[in-house]
Structure formats: C-alpha cells, structure tokens
Design goal:
The complex is a heterodimer of chains A (368) and B (581).
Chain A: E1 13-24, E2 27-38, E3 42-46, H1 53-61, E4 68-73, E5 76-77, E6 88-91, H2 103-113, H3 118-131, H4 147-159, E7 165-169, H5 177-194, E8 197-202, H6 205-211, E9 214-219, E10 222-227, H7 229-234, H8 239-244, E11 249-259, E12 262-267, E13 272-276, E14 286-291, E15 297-298, E16 306-317, E17 321-327, E18 333-339, E19 352-357, E20 362-366
Parallel strand pairs in A: 3-8, 3-9, 6-7, 7-8
Antiparallel strand pairs in A: 1-2, 1-4, 4-5, 9-10, 11-12, 11-14, 12-13, 14-20, 15-19, 16-17, 16-19, 17-18
Chain B: H1 8-28, H2 40-47, H3 49-82, H4 85-100, H5 103-114, H6 119-126, H7 139-162, H8 167-175, H9 180-208, H10 212-217, H11 225-234, H12 239-263, H13 283-313, H14 325-342, H15 348-352, H16 369-376, H17 378-411, H18 416-428, H19 431-445, H20 451-475, H21 480-487, H22 492-520, H23 524-529, H24 537-547, H25 551-580
Helix pairs in contact in B: 1-17, 1-19, 1-20, 2-12, 3-4, 3-7, 3-9, 3-14, 4-7, 4-14, 5-7, 5-25, 7-9, 8-9, 9-12, 9-13, 11-12, 12-19, 16-25, 17-20, 17-22, 17-24, 18-20, 20-22, 21-22, 22-25
Classes of the chains: A alpha+beta (368), B mainly alpha (581).
The complex binds adenosine-5'-triphosphate and magnesium ion.
Chain lengths: 368, 581
C-alpha cells in the first residue's frame, strides 16, 4: 500500500504534524516533532521508554494540548480541537473497553455518538465483528473475553466508523509473545484489507520492523530518523539509530577521504575501511563504522574489501543462527552471525580470525 | 477452626457485648405488660400515631440527607479522584475535617452560624436579603447539620469506587466521538453509581440512628425515632416498647441492606467490584437497570443537546487552546463543598471569647470569663478526665482485640467475607440499638454508671474501625518479607517486632486514633450507659445544651477542637516519622 516515491500530494496525507512542542513544567517531552502519515500507510513510532511516543500520540488524539506546532487531520487544522471533533480512532494499551456495556454496545458507541439508526448500527457491528473474527459476541461483556479477544474488540470499536487515521499505543503490550505475534499479523492484514492509515506505537523493535511501511524513531522527545524499515536497518543516520534497531558492530575511526561518494575511514588500529555514509562528514572527522553481525564473514576465502582481525572467544547457538563473539583491537567486542551448521573454518578459541564485509553492507556515521 | 485463636478474643467480645444484649432486647420486646409472651408491643407500634409520625419524619430526614449528601458529595469525590495524588491528599484532610472535629462542636458551630442573628443571616442581610428566614430550629437547619455531618462518609465511599475507574475510559469515549457531557453520563456516571449507592446507603442507615442534630438544630416537629426510644426508656421506663421500636429500626436497616445487596452487591461497600452483568438475571435489578438506562439516555441526550448548542454558538477553535469552562465550574463547586465541610467548626472559636452572655454574632469584646467558668467547674474537669481515660482505654482494648483478628482475616481465614461482616456489624447497626441493649444488660449486672461499662460499650463501636484500618494496611503488606525474615533465622516474635511491626506501625497508629476519637466523641451509648451518675465530655455538653446554649459551651468546644487538632497532628508526626525510617 505504499505510495510511489514523491507522489505525496496533500490529498493523500491523512495526518500532518509540524514542529510540535510539548512541555510538562520544565521538562520538554516533545521538541520539533514533525511526522506525516499518508493514506493507507502504516507508520510506527519507535523509541525507548520516555522518548515521547505516547505524548505525541495523545496530542494527535486531542488528549493533551501541545505548546506550539500544528496538527492537521485529513488536511484540516486540528491542533486544539477537542477529541470528539477529530476524525480519529484510538486503541489504548489496556483496551479501555467500557466494562458496563456489552461488546455490541461498546462497538456501537461511536456510531450512536454519530446518531446512526439502530438498525444500521446493528448491521455495522456485526460486519466489523466478522472482520475481527469474533462474530456473535455482541451480547457478551468485555470481562468475559480473553485479553487477545478484548484487544480485537478495541480494534473493531476504533475501526467501525472508518476514521481518517487509527492511532494505537502499544496495543499488544499486555499480551504474551505468541498471541502478540498472531495479532501483529491480524492487524497487518486488517490494515491492508481496509486500506487504513495507521499510527502505531511500540518499543518492540521487531514488531516495528515486521509491521511498518515506515518507522519514526524517537529519542528524548525528538525525532531521530524516519524511513522504511530497510532504510533504518541498513542506512541508519545516527549511532543511536544504529544501536537501537537490531544488533550492530560499531568500529571507531577517523575519516581520511572520499571516493565516488564512498567514505574512507582509518580505524583505531590503523586499518583503512570503506563504506557509504548517510551524514555529512569531512576529512579528519571522528566517525564510527556500523556493520550488522550477519554481514560479517569469518575467514572467507576471498576476504571482502573491508576486513579486521580479531580473536575468537566463543560461539552461542540461538536456534537457526549462531552468534560468534570476537575481541578485536583494544578489547573491542565484535559479533558475527552465521547460519547454524555452517562450517566454521579454522575457528578455535583464542585464535585469530579474519572478519570481512562488503563496503555497501556497512555505514559510516558521525561519532557524536 | 484450628489456628483461629487470634480471632477468638474479638469474636468472643462481640458475642458477649454486642450480639447477646441485642438478642436480649429482641426477646424483651416480645414480653407483654403481664410478663408473658406477647406481640403487644409490636401491635402498639402500628396503633400509635406518634410512632408512625415520628417514623415518617425520621425517614424523611434520612432520605433528604442522603440525597443532598450524594449530590453535594459527588463533585468533591470526582475532583479528588481526578486530581494527582499529592493534591488529593491535602484536600482529603479538609474533607475529613468534620470527622475529626467533635460532633457536638460542629453542632454548636451551626447554632452560631444559623441563628436568627447568626453569621449566615448577617451575611444575607449584607447581601441585600431583607429579613432573612431563621434556619435554626427548622427542618432546613436539621438538613444543613446532618448533611454536614454525613457528607464526608459519602465522599469517601464514592471516592473509593471512583479511584478504581480507569481515566482512560473517558478519554476513549472522547476519541470515539462523545462530547464531555455524553462521556460523563454514559461512561463515568454509570461506573461511579455503585459508589453513590454505597455512600447513600451508609448515610441513610447512619441518619436513621441520628438524634443530636435534630434535637439541637430542629424543633419538636423534627423529633426522630431515637428520641422516642430515649423518651420511652428514660421517662416511661417502658423497656418492651422501646425495644420494639429499636428492633423495627433494625429490621428496616436489614431490609435496606438486603435490597442493596440484591441490586449492587455488598462488596462495593469496601470498594470492591460491582456485580454487573450476571446480576441482570435477578428481576429487581433488571428492572432497575432498564429504568436507569432510560433515565441516563434521557439526561445524556439533553446535556448533549445543550453541549451542541453551546458548541454551535462558540465553536471550538482548532488554532487556540480551549478555555475549559466546565472544569472551572466543577472545581469551584467542589471547593465550595469542601469549604462547607471544613470551615464551620472554626466559628466556635471567636464566640468562646465573647463578653456577652449569649451566642451572638459577631462576638462582643474579648474575655476569658467562659474559660474560667469551665475550668472552675469540677463537673467539666471530671467529664474531661473521664472521657480521656475511657477513650484511651478503648483504643488500647480495641487494638488488642482487633489487630489479631485483622491478622487472622488477612493471613489465614477462608470465609473472609462472613467473618468480616461479623466484625464490622456494629458499624452498620444504628447506635441507639446497641445503646439500649447494653443499658438493658448492664442494668441487670450493675455496670450502669461505671467507667468499665463505658469502655465496653465504646469498644464495641471501635472494633470495626480498627479491623478495617488494619486489614487495609495488611493487604498492602508483602508477607514474603516475613518469610524472608524467618528464613534468615528470626523466630515468630522477633519477626513481628523487627519486621512486621515497623512496617505496619503507621496503620496501627491510625487505628488507635480512630478508636480514640470514636470513643472521645461518642454520645449515644454514653447517654444510656452512664445512667446519669457519671458523665463524659459529650454527655456534659449535651445536658448543658439542652438547658441553655451559652458561650461556655463554645469555650469547651474550642478546647476540644484544639485538643483534637493536637492529637491528630501528633499522631501524624509519629506516623510520618515511622514512614520516613
Ligand atoms: N502528565 C505528565 N506530567 C509530567 N511528565 C509527563 C507526563 N506525561 C509524560 N511525561 C513525561 O514525558 C516523557 C515522555 O513520556 P511518554 O509517555 O510520551 O513516553 P513513551 O515514549 O510513551 O514511553 P513508554 O514507552 O514508556 O510508554 C516521560 O519522561 C514522562 O515522564
Ligand atoms: Mg507510552
């Protein structure tokens, strides 16, 4: 459902947030936050605890007032509109189902608020219950359903009136791993089937990678980077982004030159390595080279363009893959990930090994 | 029931000093004038027009008190429930103010405030109301005094339910398109109703047993059932008839509790869950919920229409922060309610320094004559001393009985609800019944007019408070700490002294305070059990007030106010120090 690059005319923009700032007393919870969600797009807010994800989401929902900045929903200014005048749906972490109402009344609630007729409400409720695969539960009470089922009802309630955008704050946070994965899949399926614009909050990076069209990485109230999962994973712009998403090896060094847009870095042990960069760097700048563990080859027959030597420490089998740990220059920790069962030529504890990788599987980042 | 020894002292005490006398009184009410078994006392109940009239007045007063306490208390509880914890605790102290200030002190304060030339009327005159009505010795005066006395109970009960309502639910309703009014009436209000029902129930039952306020602030037309019981015993010596009236009151209370349990479930009284959904099978509650739903929908529609009309007049601006008028109005109303609870007691202070012979407002001049008069009167000094000794003993005894029982309830008991219900039953019994029953028993064994008798009577009332307080503390106490201590080699006694006790210390201090204040302020039981031979402070004030309300009483009230404040501050400091450690 992704839009072709660059074709984001304002008509297909379901949500625009510009330069939002929010403080609690002295504390700045949001600063210069700008995000857009296009029609049919699944955008995830990802970030460590306290980075301002919920604050941003609540501001969009109209549940807290930003100090400055602008929010547009489906093109209309909504910065300080009350929640009930915004065309949004929201799913809360603890579901927030009304305990004194049946499932049918819960899902029918937004329709009653919109003054639909009783027969139309019944029809819409049973249709959406089919969609979330809980048909016939109209007359039950929320507490008679399991956590996963309650979450689906909460989803149905936020979808039934077809809002411009659906906001979800860690909707799966309270569920166990297995159920979480199942519901991730179902939310994704619903999103594709209904062509919804979604803004999703999680601090689970795997969840973000699996579900999103784009990820918005947040850090201390600011937006660190927005991009597709691939961009964030393979082309992080900052050390924080590289570190937060997935596992990474970070080798420190100094920029010594550029060639065809490829940056050349002298590592601390003096070895030169090459790689593309996502930030502005100048010769002489301190830099870090980020390599994903799965991009590293151990003692390969034809060593890649970049390589370092390191002492093998141990290997840990984690299922389908095995992690190998090394100690490099000045005690630097390095890890490589290989398929379990793949031959490990000449790898023995406390023996040197050559770790190599291709230039375009690493990124050069500012040291900061 | 192996290992139930911690429960036995409290259970035994209540059986002997509470259940047995009440049963005795019940039996006595079936004894006719000829000494044989007869229902004649009950037949007289129906025939006596006085009883019927007084009963109706009692219900009228209790009903209106309940209604006003809920309506005025609701915004306060709502405000407290939605405030951050730090500010909530501060306001809660003011809400509890009437509870800490002695009952009679408060009533005198209202006499000062409400009289024909009282502070309120003078304020009204300044505001331009010519010849304002007197509120004192009227139904309105009784109402003001009763609501003032019972509203804190109502607020706290509603608060315990509201605290458990997820704030996110109203937010969710907003995002789903509900205006604040609709969100309130359709979501928050129905969820808070069990709290209002529980608060209303407690207020109603307590009102039925009230007589001080109607007696001092009302006229003959506001004579209540308890006064009738007192009259029957003190003047007519008609035990059987008095017993029958008391029993009728008890039956009424039980019936109300039964209906309440069917409709809402008794567990809400202690902040428990509402029994929803499943109870809709019971026809009474089904009908209630149907009617209630219709009513709520109507209210919600009307307020929604008003909201929409206002919204059309002053549309919300997307580019400017909204002015939250509704929130300001709520805050104002709630704070006004809190002021109504907290301020009046202090009006006794200036009056006590008056030079005038009467309770006039504003007080004239400055003199200490009334204090001198009080201190020179051995009756007051004796009463104060006895009240103190009794209250202190009651607190000690109630703690010794109640704390082990509370431990047993939390740590070992199986049928907790039944045991709890038994231990707190004196709380829901109109005090007059306990008073009459104890008087009847004590008269036979020579305990009337003794300090021991007073201590026993007050302890019956204090035990429920001790149990409830200590249970609440223990529930939050992690028993694994004890287990950890014992695995570290501490024996039972040392575990209790070194681990358990320091942790629950503040709860025990609070329980002690409760017991002390309840006894110190108790009048109903004292009125009977003292038998006119000895006196306590509240009884002395009561006797004096019936004769003449003079500034001397204001002086006593001021002294009690100062004493109570000192006791509460002292215990708070003790408690804080315990927590800080
Ligand atoms: N009402 C409030 N008053 C004061 N500070 C607040 C308030 N709400 C949030 N904060 C602060 O703002 C910061 C951001 O909070 P927020 O809830 O947005 O984080 P989050 O990214 O959602 O974290 P989590 O992953 O833990 O949910 C936190 O440091 C928090 O303490
Ligand atoms: Mg959050």
């Amino acid at each position: 459902m992704k839009m072709a690059d660059g074709s984001s005319n304002s008509d297909s923009l379901k949500l625009e947030v510009r330069n939002l700032r929010k403080t609690f007393g002295e504390f700045v919870a949001l600063e210069g936050a700008s995000v857009e969600v296009r029609a049919g797009e699944f955008l995830t807010l990802l970030g460590p605890s306290g980075s301002g994800k919920t604050t941003l989401l609540l501001a969009i929902a109209g549940l807290n007032e930003p100090d400055s900045g602008e929010i547009r929903i489906h093109g209309d200014l909504a910065t300080y509109l009350p929640p009930y005048q915004r065309d949004i749906g929201m799913v809360f972490q603890n579901y927030a189902l009304f305990p004194h109402m049946t499932i049918g009344e819960n899902i029918g609630f937004p329709l009653r608020m919109r003054r639909w007729s009783a027969s139309k409400i019944d029809e819409a409720v049973s249709r959406i219950l089919d969609v979330v695969q809980l048909p016939g539960t109209e007359n039950r009470y929320p507490r008679q359903l399991s956590g996963g089922q309650q979450q689906r009802i909460a989803l149905a309630r936020a979808l039934v009136y077809e809002p411009s955008i659906v906001l979800m704050d860690e909707p799966l946070g309270a569920l166990d791993k297995k159920l979480r994965e199942q519901l991730q899949y179902e939310i994704k399926r619903l999103h594709e089937r209904l062509g919804l614009a979604m803004l999703y909050v999680t601090h689970d990076q795997e969840e973000a990678l699996v579900m999103s069209d784009r990820i918005c990485l947040m850090r201390q109230g600011r937006i660190e980077q927005i991009g597709t999962p691939e961009e964030l994973y393979f082309r992080p712009k900052t050390r924080f982004a590289a570190d937060f998403l997935g596992e990474s090896n970070l080798l420190e060094g100094e920029v010594i030159g550029f060639q065809d847009g490829i940056c050349e870095v002298a590592l601390n042990d003096g070895r030169p390595v090459r790689g593309p960069t996502t930030t502005k760097l100048n010769v002489g700048d301190k830099a870090v080279v980020m390599i994903r563990p799965e991009a590293i080859r151990i003692n390969a027959a034809e060593a890649g363009a970049n390589s370092v030597t390191a002492t093998f420490i141990e290997a840990v089998m984690t299922g389908g893959t095995t992690k190998c740990f090394f100690e490099g220059h000045q005690g630097q920790q390095l890890k490589a990930q290989i398929l379990t069962g793949q031959p490990r030529d000449g790898l023995a504890p406390n023996k040197e090994a050559v770790l190599s990788w291709e230039p375009d599987s690493c990124v050069v980042l500012a040291h900061d | 029931m192996r290992g139930s020894w911690p429960l036995i002292p409290a259970a035994l005490f209540l059986a002997v000093a509470f259940v047995y006398p009440v049963a005795l009184l019940l039996g006595r009410s079936f004894v006719g004038s000829d000494g044989g078994l007869s229902a004649e006392n009950y037949a007289r109940l129906g025939e006596s027009t006085v009883v019927v009239r007084v009963m109706l007045i009692t219900f009228k007063i209790a009903g209106w008190t309940t209604l006003f306490a809920i309506i005025a208390g609701y915004p306060i509880a709502y405000l407290l429930a939605t405030l951050p914890a730090s500010r909530r605790n501060l306001l809660a102290i003011f809400v509890l103010m009437p509870f800490w200030t002695s009952f009679l002190v408060r009533t005198f304060a209202w006499i000062v405030l409400l009289g024909r030339n009282g502070a309120l009327n003078q304020l009204l005159q300044v505001l331009g109301v010519s010849d304002p009505p007197s509120f004192l010795y009227q139904f309105s005066g009784v109402m003001i005094g009763m609501v003032h006395a019972l509203m804190p109970l109502c607020v706290l009960t509603m608060l315990s339910v509201m605290e458990n309502i997820d704030k996110r639910l109203t937010d969710a309703a907003g995002t789903l398109g509900a205006r604040p009014a609709a969100a309130f009436w359709r979501i928050y209000f129905p969820l808070s109703l069990p709290g209002a029902a529980a608060g209303g129930l407690l207020v109603f039952i307590t009102s039925l047993g009230f007589f001080i306020t109607p007696a001092l602030l009302g006229s003959e037309r506001e004579t209540v059932i308890v006064q009738l019981v007192i009259f029957q015993i003190k003047e007519m010596l008609n035990w059987g008839f008095a017993g029958a009236i008391a029993i009728m009151l008890l039956v009424v209370a039980l019936v109300i509790f039964y209906i309440y349990d069917r409709l809402v479930g008794l567990s809400t009284l202690s902040g428990g869950d509402v029994r929803g959904g499943a109870s809709s099978r019971n026809p009474l509650s089904w009908l209630g919920s149907k009617v209630g739903n219709l009513l709520l929908t109507a209210i919600s529609e009307v307020s929604d229409a008003i909201g929409r009309a206002l919204g059309a007049l002053m549309p919300a601006r997307p580019d400017r922060k909204p002015r939250r008028i509704g929130g300001k109005v709520l805050r104002f109303v709630a704070l006004a309610g809190i002021a109504f609870l907290a301020v009046p007691a202090f009006f006794v202070v200036p009056v006590s320094f008056s030079e005038s012979q009467f309770l006039t407002w504003p007080p004239k001049g400055f003199s200490l004559q009334w204090y001198r008069e009080v201190f020179d009167n051995p009756l007051w000094i004796g009463a104060a001393w006895r009240s103190f000794v009794v209250a202190f003993s009651v607190a000690v005894v109630a703690l010794m009985l109640g704390v082990p029982a509370a431990f047993y309830l939390v740590r070992r008991a199986r049928r907790t609800t039944a045991i709890m219900a038994f231990l707190i039953s004196p709380l829901i019994m109109p005090h007059i019944i306990i008073a009459v029953a104890l008087f009847y028993l004590f008269a036979q064994i020579g305990l009337v007019g003794t300090t021991i008798g007073l201590i026993i009577g007050h302890t019956v009332l204090a035990i429920p408070y001790v149990v409830v307080t200590v249970v609440a503390v223990l529930k939050n106490y992690d028993i694994r700490l004890d287990h950890a201590a014992s695995t570290l080699g501490a024996n039972g006694v040392r575990t209790f002294l070194n681990v358990t006790f320091p942790l629950i210390r503040s709860g025990l201090i609070a329980a002690f305070m409760f017991a002390f204040i309840i006894s110190f302020d108790e009048l109903t039981i004292s009125l009977f059990v003292t038998g006119g031979q000895v006196t306590t402070l509240p009884k002395q004030m009561w006797d004096d007030a019936l004769l003449r309300v003079s500034p001397a009483l204001a002086a006593v009230a001021t002294l009690i106010l100062a004493f109570m404040t000192a006791v509460i501050l002292g215990s708070e400091i003790l408690r804080r120090r315990g927590v800080a450690k």
